[in-house]
């Protein structure tokens, strides 16, 4: 897949840093051309820097596109940019995500909506935007970032857990819709991964998490990226509608 004409093309949302940046790198390492994405000016600049680094390191084409995935028009423009640059979209990784934690009793309605809008509706918006090209090509891989919080629940995260559980429902329903068209849809449910998102945890929360993780360490973004790269590959063609935890044994 090193030939630019025939290389597969991937979109990774929220790939300016953390898990998204690691997934974009893992896909570029497989020879895919990649569209990185950030929603703010700052994250776009970081995504542009990532894109240059991937192009230099792996000899692929990589570009960064600003889009807020919660907005259906911006999600459509993101897919259009990938199609224009590469003529195809083979992989979509719905990675963009936010938290607005707090106990339900005190949670503002806006904090519930904001998290659902980005994490769940954002995944729908982007999936919808790539379904036509993927089904027309009869080749596609949609990989959605859920969370163990969406599988098992987590106090202080009713908004986040609901959005990530919603992502699982979306994954399963969409997998059934498009399986006969060569498109697979799977979800990854990470546990505690060392990124800016978890850097916000207190020392106490971190220590409590470590106690519960069987392998005794937080995960690295690359631990999640390795699974995403496999699910994006041809070897994963017969795996669809699945939710796979990457959590070092946290939920055992
Ligand atoms: P992060 O906070 O480091 O990165 C999130 C990325 O999403 C950033 O690039 C940010 O710019 C982007 N983003 C935020 N809102 C956006 C929007 N509206 N449109 C486009 N991009 C947007 O987070 P991290 O830790 O790398 O998480 C990535 C994904 O993995 C998220 O969906 C998160 O919920 C999920 N996850 C992370 C876990 C962890 O322990 N870090 C655990 C379980 C799931």
What does this structure look like?
The chain has nine helices and seven strands. A seven-stranded parallel β-sheet has the order 3-2-1-4-5-6-7, with helices on both faces. Helix 1 packs parallel to helix 2 (41-58), helix 1 packs across helix 9 (221-232) and helix 4 runs parallel beside helix 6. The longest helix has 29 residues, at 109-137. Helix content is 50%, strand content 15%. The chain is α/β, with parallel strands linked by helices. It has one domain: Rossmann fold, CATH 3.40.50.720. The mean pLDDT is 96. It has helices at 18-29, 41-58, 72-86, 109-137, 148-152, 158-178, 196-199, 203-212, 221-232, and strands spanning 9-12, 33-38, 62-66, 91-94, 140-145, 183-190, 243-246. Strand 1, helix 1 and strand 2 (33-38) form a beta-alpha-beta unit. The structure holds 1,4-dihydronicotinamide adenine dinucleotide. Residues 13-14, 16-20, 37-39, 43, 68-70, 95-98, 118, 122, 145, 147, 190, 192-193, 195-198 line the site of 1,4-dihydronicotinamide adenine dinucleotide (NAI). 1,4-dihydronicotinamide adenine dinucleotide (NAI) binds at residues 13-14, 16-20, 37-39, 43, 68-70, 95-98, 118, 122, 145, 147, 190, 192-193, 195-198.
